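Study this protein:
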Amino acid sequence: MSRFLDEIMDDLRFIKSHSLQPDWYKVFKVFMLLGVLIGYGYFFGIRKTIVFFVVFMVLALLVHMMYRVKTNKWQRSWLDFVVVEENNVIRAERIGKFYYAAILLNAILSLVISQVIA
């Protein structure tokens, strides 16, 4: 269990430190998700909102883990995740259309699944 927590802490440190998105956007995403959930709950009810949220988070975790594994814990480039080395320091430089397309697809799949199941 300790190793699992260490891995989570590694990911949290990366998320906090990376410059792939501006700091304001990292905060904005939380409020954007809350706004979507509140609106979804208002229009479709709490049950469908919970299903939407759970499905979206599971799919987002799958995307996260796929990038984490394929980039060797953020140390090498893969697809639209670009890593550069400057002065013997490895840093992530950008992420692009494949990642954001996956997130959009996750949102659409979550919407469809929550409407069909709940």
Q: What stands out?
A: The mean pLDDT is 93. The CA atoms of residues 25 and 32 lie 10 Å apart. Residues 2-117 form one domain. The beta strands are 82-86, 89-94.
